[in-house]
């Protein structure tokens, strides 16, 4: 009886602790700039994210990646453009990935940290200490 009670208490404690320990960043996220929304999902063992919409895309759905530093990629559509790729880890932090910023056409090395169920903190660096951070809010 005592063993069953201890086991039940351990399972309950694990169930209550797991949301804080194992965040799920997949879903639709609002960025703080240009009304952009990014859809984050799994790409194999890594996280990836695509641009779902923005104020500019709502005004002109046919916008292209015109500021890309690689001229051969400037014709790609901004809608569903890959913005996050290669982030690995888990729990509440993912690293080793890259962040593409279509506003300046640059790729940044980055980290993603979950601060609760509905807040992500992204940090991108050209080269340390030249880094910038943004906080994204979950929409769904």
Descriptive overview:
This protein has 140 residues and is an alpha+beta fold. It is built from two helices and eight strands, in the order H-E-E-E-H-E-E-E-E-E. It has helices spanning 2-21, 55-59, and strands spanning 27-30, 37-43, 46-53, 82-90, 93-101, 106-114, 119-127, 130-138. The termini are far apart. Residues 1-21 have low confidence and may be disordered.
Which secondary structure elements does this structure contain, and how are they paired or packed?
Elements: H1 2-21, E1 27-30, E2 37-43, E3 46-53, H2 55-59, E4 82-90, E5 93-101, E6 106-114, E7 119-127, E8 130-138
Antiparallel strand pairs: 1-2, 1-8, 2-3, 3-4, 4-5, 5-6, 6-7, 7-8
Summarize the structure.
By secondary structure, the chain is of the alpha+beta class. The protein has helices at 2-21, 55-59; strands at 27-30, 37-43, 46-53, 82-90, 93-101, 106-114, 119-127, 130-138.
**N- to C-terminal distance:** 43 Å
Q: Using the CA coordinates, give the radius of gyration.
A: 18 Å
Q: How would the global form be characterised?
A: globular
The order of strands across the largest sheet is 1-2-3-4-5-6-7-8
Main β-sheet: number of strands, strand sense, barrel status? 8 strands, antiparallel, barrel
Let me know the number of strands: 8
Q: How many distinct helices? A: 2
Low-pLDDT parts are 1-21
- How much helix, percentage-wise, in residues? 10-25%
Q: Write down the overall mean pLDDT.
A: 86
The SSE string, one letter per element, is HEEEHEEEEE
Class based on secondary structure composition and strand pairing: alpha+beta
Strand content: over 45%
